[in-house]
């Protein structure tokens, strides 16, 4: 498992959303935007257990998250963090996770449109296997 550097944790601590790539049954990509939070060296997000994303992760736990930074590097490239990992689905969505995500992204602990209202909501825990992108979280900030 790869460790998150301080720079990666700082970006993940902002309100930047993550684009999550999963694989559909036919091998085509499925992309969703999710709110994420770091817990130790894992990335957590919630989703509806009946969603295509959850079904894809249950069938194939390989996942890619991409988070765009607001800064550019010295060569003008937009900084971004790419995380490849393995997802594990927990059968329940923790209300504290929902509160933390809502506070982080909209400033409200109990957002009315949160997944809390979904009876099939689940927690997705991503174990980080590889970190890449453009930014201080990789050795060569030019390669992707």
Which features does this protein show?
144 residues; alpha+beta; Pnp Oxidase, Chain A; seven-stranded antiparallel β-sheet; disordered C terminus
Task: Describe what you observe in this structure.
This protein is of the alpha+beta class and 144 residues long. The chain has one domain: Roll (Pnp Oxidase, Chain A). Helix content is 19%, strand content 42%. It contains three helices and seven strands, in the order αββββαββαβ. It has a seven-stranded antiparallel β-sheet with strand order 2-1-5-6-7-4-3, sandwiched between helices. The protein is globular and about 45 Å long. It starts with 5 loop residues before the first helix and ends in a 10-residue tail after the last strand.
Task: Please write out the topology.
Blueprint (H helix, E strand, L loop, with lengths): L5 H7 L5 E6 L5 E6 L2 E3 L2 E7 L3 H8 L2 E11 L5 E13 L4 H12 L14 E14 L10
Antiparallel strand pairs: 1-2, 1-5, 3-4, 4-7, 5-6, 6-7
């Amino acid at each position: 498992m790869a460790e998150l550097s301080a720079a990666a944790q700082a970006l993940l601590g902002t309100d930047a959303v993550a684009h999550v790539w999963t694989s559909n049954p036919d091998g085509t990509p499925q992309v969703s935007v999710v709110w994420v939070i770091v817990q130790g060296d894992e990335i957590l997000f919630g989703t509806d257990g009946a969603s295509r994303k959850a079904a894809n992760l249950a069938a194939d736990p390989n996942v890619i998250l991409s988070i765009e930074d607001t800064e550019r590097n010295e060569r003008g490239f937009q900084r971004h963090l790419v995380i490849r990992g393995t997802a594990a689905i927990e059968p329940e969505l923790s209300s504290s996770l929902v509160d933390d995500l809502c506070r982080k992204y909209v400033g409200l602990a109990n957002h009315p449109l949160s997944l809390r209202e979904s009876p099939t909501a689940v927690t997705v825990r991503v174990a980080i296997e590889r970190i890449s992108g453009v930014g201080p979280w990789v050795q060569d900030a030019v390669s992707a």
